[in-house]
Amino acid sequence: MKLGRSRKPSRLKNLALRSLLGFAFLISCTSPESDSTSVNVPDSPNSEQDFEQRLTLENATLEQEDDDGQPLWQISAVKAIYSQDREKADLETVSGEVYQNGELVLTVFGEQGEIFQGGKSFFLRRNVKAVDVRSGIELYAQEAQWLPDQGVLVVQQELQGRYESIVMTARKGRYHTEDERLELFWNILGTWQDEALQLQTEYAEWRLPAAQISSDRETEIVQFEPETKEIRERARGDQADVDLDAETAYLTGNVELRSGPEQVTVVTNAMQWRYNAGEVRSDDPVTILDEQDQIEANGNRGTFDINAQIVQLFEGVKAFNRANPAQLLAQTLTWDLLSEQVNAEGDVVYQQDEPVFYVEGDRAIGSLNTNRIQVFGGAQPVVTKIVPQEESP
């Protein structure tokens, strides 16, 4: 351990003490009561050992370097107290810098700290703050540990990550300085765009350079009305990827989206949701349900314009009136939820139960809500089948 020059003139110019920890500290000491600090070292052979065993320093700066002389970290503390076994140093009112490949990457702060493992790691406690000087992301927690060999800052207890308009909270996190990536664990809640969007899950990765948040666990994303904070849409899936720049969420696995007061539900296995544009797209089989009117439609792929309330379905389309049983089959279907009108094309079949009716054609328009459908032929004439009802005995 090396005791360097004080910040103000000192009678102590250069005192070298051998540390049993196996790492070097650069320590600057000042006294609040005088312009210089002197350290009296007795002449007895054991005096240096006794001094080290009870060493307490004020306004200390401690540094750690790698084998090539590159800085790993630098810590300043109002007070540093070394344990008798020389295994650790307890710190008070801590600020510091973390380096990677010789470049500054993090500034850190905490009310308390600890250096241990021969200087390979340090620990911060109470009101911890870490800032990546490259991106500006801020991490707040009650505990943090820097692991230089892994290039990871472990943060936990009341963890909060802040970047631009995004705030992510979780029980624990691991910030990877090499690729500027924050892993979040348990009870994750993310909000952004002035709290108009909210994400909940149990694990997530936040990749800052790519502006992406992803999770391989069940995830729920909710969009609120900016002024009233009422829920507009609520979507969930077994996995999620959010492209923050494109304002798009990609959900896969048992996906469901529910759209506000219209009570429209979209069910599929994979969905692309442009949440600000109000557009939903699925290239997988998809079902759209108007819960209020009990109308259901499905196809092999489809889109839903939430703002215009228009559904488009393609390939093997089936639409049902659950309340007053009727069915419309087609290759494509455009469904205007506001006007309750449908426009179907390609291999059209319409049938209903009351009264029993069956018709085939090339195109159909009308309303499934009222079971009033007009079917038109193209090159082929319309085929109508009247199915007689069985008389009651």
Radius of gyration, whole Å: 34 Å
Low-pLDDT stretches are 1-45, 385-389
Helical content, roughly? under 10%
- Report the principal-axis shape: rod-shaped
What oligomeric arrangement do these chains adopt?
A: single chain
> How many strand elements?
29
| SSE pattern | EEEHEEEEEEEEEEEEEEEEEEEEEEEEEE
Beta-strand residue percentage: over 45%
- Look at the helices and sheets and give the structural class: mainly beta
Task: Please state the average pLDDT score.
Answer: 83
Number of helices: 1
First-to-last CA distance? 106 Å
Main sheet makeup: 26 strands, antiparallel
Characterise this structure:
It contains one helix and 29 strands. With 393 residues, it is an all-beta fold. The N terminus is likely disordered.
List the helices and strands and how they pair.
Elements: E1 2-3, E2 15-16, E3 26-27, H1 47-53, E4 56-65, E5 71-82, E6 88-100, E7 103-116, E8 121-132, E9 138-147, E10 152-163, E11 166-176, E12 181-192, E13 197-207, E14 212-215, E15 219-224, E16 231-237, E17 239-243, E18 248-259, E19 264-274, E20 279-282, E21 286-290, E22 295-299, E23 301-305, E24 310-321, E25 326-336, E26 341-352, E27 357-367, E28 372-376, E29 383-385
Parallel strand pairs: 1-3
Antiparallel strand pairs: 1-2, 4-5, 5-6, 6-7, 7-8, 8-9, 9-10, 10-11, 11-12, 12-13, 13-14, 13-15, 14-17, 15-16, 16-18, 17-18, 18-19, 19-20, 19-21, 20-23, 21-22, 22-24, 23-24, 24-25, 25-26, 26-27, 27-28, 27-29
